Amino acid sequence: ADTTASPKSWQAAITANGAANAAVDDVFSGRADNVFVAARPPGHHAEKTTAMGFCLFNTAAIAARYAQKKHGVERVAIVDWDVHHGNGTQDIFWDDPSVLYCSTHQMPLYPGTGAKTETGAGNIVNAPLAPQTGSEVFRDAFLSRVLPALDNFAPDLIIISAGFDAHHRDPLAEINLTEDDFDWATGQLMQRAARHSGNRLVSLLEGGYDLQGLAFSVAAHVGRLMKG
To answer: Which residues contact 83 (CB under 8 A, 6 or more apart)?
Structure first.
């Protein structure tokens, strides 16, 4: 009920999927170390059989499977810092240890999933954040849960579900991040990509519902990616 479609929705969604897969090709061919895909609709709420949360297809999951099938990748890590939990990505890879899913998100909040106790086959790492927290708590979640999991997993490819609705201006949640926090998190993931995956990193736009906060955050994120 929360996910409507129009006559052009199919084309938009499959174009987003194609762009993500092209980004995977670019990082494995050496055309780029990292790629940011600015696409709509987002994807991380789409489950195996259900479109929801403005998402028709799970773009990050499709890109991960594409990397495995096209490029023979053994281990893919998906890091999701959208303020909403990526229930769809968790659902798709729940029992698949070849894909690590790490998420920071506000809890309680839509869609109601993402507790620390939800661990799948040991490949699901949730770091829920309480409402009205901000930079310090977010960065601590990264340092204490997300980054150690990445180092332990040693992925061949890192995919970011890069939602920017944890920005303090966003109307749909109460996590008070700034663009500096997204710059910092991007840098941390780039360090892990350099350490484990030959710099291969693909970032996919997820949520973000305040246009100024979204623009500033994406600019900080892409600026960091371009520093290499």
So the answer is: 105, 106, 109, 163, 165, 166, 170, 172, 173, 175, 207
- Angstrom distance (rounded) from CA 26 to CA 30: 6
* pLDDT attached to residue 1: 82
Angle at 97 between CA 95 and CA 100, to 5 degrees: 105
> Of residues 44, 45, 84, 105, which has the active-site annotation?
45
Our answer to whether residue 71 is catalytic in this structure is: no
pTM summary value = 0.98
* pLDDT tens sequence across 179-224: 999 999 999 999 999 999 999 999 999 999 999 999 999 999 999 9
Nearest to 113 by CA among 133, 130, 132, 91: 91
Structural domains of the chain, with CATH: 9-226 (3.40.800.20)
Give the closest residue to 163 by CA, choosing from 95, 93, 89.
89
**Contact of 42 with 20, CB cutoff 8 Å:** no
Nearest Cα to Cα of residue 51 among 110, 98, 4, 121: 4
